[in-house]
């Protein structure tokens, strides 16, 4: 009988031992009322060795292995709670010998005899370090994401496909005048004041990972409105579609745009008034001036009444001054027409050479007064250009007359015409006074003259080059100048050979 009981007991013991050893990451042990080991599984022995560096044995005192007095006290309190009959679960953190952090979930239960007296305690300890580390990682990631979205100077809101707020940053809440808590229970319809609920639903359905960009109006908590620029895109989180919206308050930009537009309209209207004034004035000045020039012509060519030499000089003076004045008025009128966009080019296809054939005789006459030679260096390409014939002559006239005007006597003014892919390049070079480097950049501005002193040697108004530049640009060409003071200047411009697509 005794042997039978002993066998049964042995069988039960082995069974229990098997159960204790089977879970791989759980350590199990039991202590008596003096905290001495009654039993433990292999796992517990391995883990305690890792943590304490000592090998535990049946009968040895659990608490004496714990070197750190604070930890020992903490553990004793837990054991005493179990010894007082309480069953409970706690999670604690330990460092092993290598100072690696371990998290243990410990289930404490009192051990009772048949009479119900507590004779010790049992502890089930699970190493949950992996789970805990994953939780810490997720928590850190959440904080990092939060910091990132909080650092944005734009409002950020994440909504689900139905328009409910999932997350928002403080900036977004502030823009709308709500607290973060209030924002989290809002729906997109409550702040968007421009689109209808149906339109918003459509927009949410349509937005994808490539994103969308639009402007809208938001309504603050206090019902005031402001303009917003939104960049949104969508991403799938499992089954859930989330829409990320970055919102920028553009009220100020909109206001500036409105003011700029107003200023532009005002400036355009002022410019129109100025052009109108100039046109009227020029017309009014031109009429009497034409009479002055005409009658001085009549007087000087009138052979019936012989003029004295002095009278002839005076009349020539009147006519020359009149012509000079007429030129200035014509220049001002031309520039103001270009400025106000009133000029319409009358473009046609013609040979480049024709312009030179027409203009060179006049220019040669002007040059001969200073004994200046005009040489057309290259063979003028036998090509057609598509341009306004009168304006091209005007460009050439202005550049050549400047080259002659700013050259000392007995020099050469040369013209080179080149052809590239789709343009004709014309360069007018002289060996004249040149232009200082620091004046080159504004030489094409109206009324700019290098010598602006009262005792100016060369006549002119400073309008010629401004007109030339505008005319070249109206033809979609470009103009530039290279010059060296005292050595000479080269003005070059391009013109298209074919009609440009409008
Ligand atoms: P204007 O000749 O009537 O003064 P422009 O607009 O034609 O007006 O020229 C502006 C200024 O540019 C001139 O006053 C002169 O100082 C300078 N300039 C123009 N062409 C030349 C040139 N070929 N050589 C030197 N200076 C020049």
UniProtKB/TrEMBL annotation:
<protein>
    <recommendedName>
        <fullName>histidine kinase</fullName>
        <ecNumber>2.7.13.3</ecNumber>
    </recommendedName>
</protein>
<dbReference type="InterPro" id="IPR013656">
    <property type="entry name" value="PAS_4"/>
</dbReference>
<dbReference type="GO" id="GO:0005886">
    <property type="term" value="C:plasma membrane"/>
</dbReference>
<dbReference type="InterPro" id="IPR036097">
    <property type="entry name" value="HisK_dim/P_sf"/>
</dbReference>
<keyword id="KW-1003">Cell membrane</keyword>
<keyword id="KW-0597">Phosphoprotein</keyword>
<keyword id="KW-0067">ATP-binding</keyword>
<dbReference type="InterPro" id="IPR001610">
    <property type="entry name" value="PAC"/>
</dbReference>
<keyword id="KW-0418">Kinase</keyword>
<dbReference type="Pfam" id="PF08448">
    <property type="entry name" value="PAS_4"/>
</dbReference>
<dbReference type="GO" id="GO:0005524">
    <property type="term" value="F:ATP binding"/>
</dbReference>
<dbReference type="InterPro" id="IPR035965">
    <property type="entry name" value="PAS-like_dom_sf"/>
</dbReference>
<dbReference type="InterPro" id="IPR003594">
    <property type="entry name" value="HATPase_dom"/>
</dbReference>
<feature type="domain" description="PAC">
    <location>
        <begin position="84"/>
        <end position="140"/>
    </location>
</feature>
<dbReference type="InterPro" id="IPR003661">
    <property type="entry name" value="HisK_dim/P_dom"/>
</dbReference>
<feature type="domain" description="Histidine kinase">
    <location>
        <begin position="280"/>
        <end position="499"/>
    </location>
</feature>
<dbReference type="InterPro" id="IPR004358">
    <property type="entry name" value="Sig_transdc_His_kin-like_C"/>
</dbReference>
<dbReference type="InterPro" id="IPR036890">
    <property type="entry name" value="HATPase_C_sf"/>
</dbReference>
<dbReference type="InterPro" id="IPR000014">
    <property type="entry name" value="PAS"/>
</dbReference>
<dbReference type="Pfam" id="PF00512">
    <property type="entry name" value="HisKA"/>
</dbReference>
<dbReference type="Pfam" id="PF02518">
    <property type="entry name" value="HATPase_c"/>
</dbReference>
<keyword id="KW-0808">Transferase</keyword>
<feature type="domain" description="PAS">
    <location>
        <begin position="141"/>
        <end position="183"/>
    </location>
</feature>
<keyword id="KW-0902">Two-component regulatory system</keyword>
<keyword id="KW-0472">Membrane</keyword>
<dbReference type="Pfam" id="PF13426">
    <property type="entry name" value="PAS_9"/>
</dbReference>
<dbReference type="InterPro" id="IPR000700">
    <property type="entry name" value="PAS-assoc_C"/>
</dbReference>
<keyword id="KW-0547">Nucleotide-binding</keyword>
<dbReference type="GO" id="GO:0000155">
    <property type="term" value="F:phosphorelay sensor kinase activity"/>
</dbReference>
<dbReference type="GO" id="GO:0009927">
    <property type="term" value="F:histidine phosphotransfer kinase activity"/>
</dbReference>
<dbReference type="InterPro" id="IPR005467">
    <property type="entry name" value="His_kinase_dom"/>
</dbReference>
């Amino acid at each position: 009988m005794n042997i039978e009981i002993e066998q049964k007991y042995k069988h039960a013991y082995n069974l229990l031992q098997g159960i204790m050893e089977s879970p791989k990451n759980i350590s199990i042990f039991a202590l008596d009322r003096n905290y001495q080991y009654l039993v433990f599984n292999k796992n517990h022995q391995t883990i305690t060795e890792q943590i304490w560096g000592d090998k535990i044995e049946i009968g040895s005192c659990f608490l004496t292995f714990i070197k750190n007095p604070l930890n020992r006290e903490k553990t004793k309190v837990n054991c005493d709670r179990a010894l007082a009959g309480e069953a409970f679960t706690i999670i604690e953190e330990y460092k092993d010998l290598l100072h690696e952090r371990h998290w243990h979930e410990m289930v404490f239960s009192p051990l009772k005899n048949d009479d119900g007296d507590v004779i010790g305690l049992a502890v089930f300890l699970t190493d949950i370090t992996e789970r805990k580390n994953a939780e810490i990682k997720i928590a850190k990631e959440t904080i990092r994401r939060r910091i990132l979205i909080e650092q944005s100077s734009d409002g950020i809101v994440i909504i689900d496909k139905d328009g409910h707020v999932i997350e928002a940053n403080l900036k977004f809440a502030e823009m709308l005048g709500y607290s973060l808590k209030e924002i989290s229970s809002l729906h997109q319809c409550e702040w968007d004041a421009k689109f209808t609920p149906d339109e918003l639903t459509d927009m949410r359905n349509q937005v994808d990972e490539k994103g969308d960009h639009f402007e809208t109006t938001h309504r603050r908590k206090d019902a005031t409105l402001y303009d917003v620029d939104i960049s949104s895109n969508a991403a799938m989180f499992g089954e859930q579609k989330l829409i990320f919206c970055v919102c920028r308050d553009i009220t100020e930009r909109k206001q500036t745009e409105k003011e700029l537009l107003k200023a532009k309209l005002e400036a355009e209207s002022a410019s129109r008034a100025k052009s109108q004034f100039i046109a009227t004035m020029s017309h009014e000045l031109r009429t009497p001036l034409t009479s002055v020039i005409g009658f001085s012509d009549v007087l000087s060519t009138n052979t019936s009444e012989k003029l004295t030499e002095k009278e002839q000089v005076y009349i020539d003076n009147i006519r020359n001054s009149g012509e000079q004045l007429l030129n200035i008025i014509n220049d001002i009128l031309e520039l103001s027409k270009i400025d106000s966009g009133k000029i319409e080019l009358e473009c046609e296809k013609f040979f480049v050479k024709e312009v030179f054939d027409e203009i060179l005789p006049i220019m040669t006459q002007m040059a001969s007064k200073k004994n200046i030679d005009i040489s057309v260096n290259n063979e003028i390409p036998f090509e057609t250009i598509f341009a306004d014939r009168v304006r091209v002559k005007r460009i050439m006239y202005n550049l050549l007359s400047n080259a002659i005007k700013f050259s000392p006597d007995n020099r050469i003014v040369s013209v080179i015409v080149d052809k590239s892919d789709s343009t004709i390049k014309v360069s007018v070079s002289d060996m004249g006074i040149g232009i200082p480097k620091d004046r080159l950049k504004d030489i094409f501005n109206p009324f700019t003259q290098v010598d602006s002193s009262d005792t100016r040697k060369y006549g002119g108004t400073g309008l010629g080059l401004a007109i030339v530049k505008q005319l070249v640009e109206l033809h979609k060409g470009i103009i530039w100048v290279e010059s060296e003071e005292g050595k000479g200047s080269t003005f070059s411009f391009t013109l298209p050979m074919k009609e440009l697509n409008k």
